[in-house]
Amino acid sequence: MVVDDHRLLAEALASALKLRGHRVLAAAAPAAGAAELVITRAPEVCLLGTATPAEPGMFDPVVRIKRERPQVAVLVLGPVPSPRGIAAAFAAGASGYVRHDERIEGVERAIMKARAGEAAVAPQLLQGAFSELLNPAAQPDDEGQRLLQMLTPREVEVLVRVADGEDTRLIAAGMGIAPSTARTHVQRVLMKLGVGSRLEAAALAARTGLLDRAGPVGSSVPDGEP
Prior knowledge:
Elements: E1 2-3, H1 7-19, E2 27-28, H2 34-41, E3 45-49, H3 60-68, E4 73-78, H4 83-91, E5 96-99, H5 104-115, E6 120-121, H6 123-134, H7 143-150, H8 153-163, H9 168-175, H10 179-193, H11 198-208, H12 210-214
Parallel strand pairs: 1-2, 1-3, 3-4, 4-5, 5-6
Helix pairs in contact: 2-3, 8-10, 8-11, 9-10
InterPro entries: CheY-like_superfamily, Sig_transdc_resp-reg_C-effctor, Sig_transdc_resp-reg_receiver, Tscrpt_reg_LuxR_C
Keywords: DNA-binding, Transcription, Transcription regulation
Domain Response regulatory: 1-115
């Protein structure tokens, strides 16, 4: 059975499988009710399409299918997934993950593996997933992390103290540096963050979650000043 919100994709894949000798019970494109449809028809293998594999709750239909029809092997059809997407699919009970742009031969191999009770996922997908897990890339939309990487550990501590309302004298005393050095650090922080005042810097740090990532103050390496 092929179930996908895109009817054209579902019907094209079903037709291709039929031409290769597979019996396809149904090709459907329900916006909802996918689990109900699969549970009712109880195919050997279900190809279940998804557009956002990392979205919370996306694999709830898989969970229900496996709970009520554990003999049905569910293959997820989706875009190039993140490691989290692959993990979520298998955690929900899927037998495999097949990319939307896979050749029909690859889909057929996945079906054969799923029917045999094997995990069906392309080696290159697993390789990419492990590579990303071992060497995670910075998230482009994580502004707090991006800003944090622009600052030195010393400047991060200065920013935390600024957000706590400390003036130059208190910053200098707390960090064991001269007031002139503290003032220089503050100016560098403002320049790197692209803001014009301490208040703006504190607000930006709080809004982006930078303060939550920074940790407690007092942990940076001293400047070597008396």
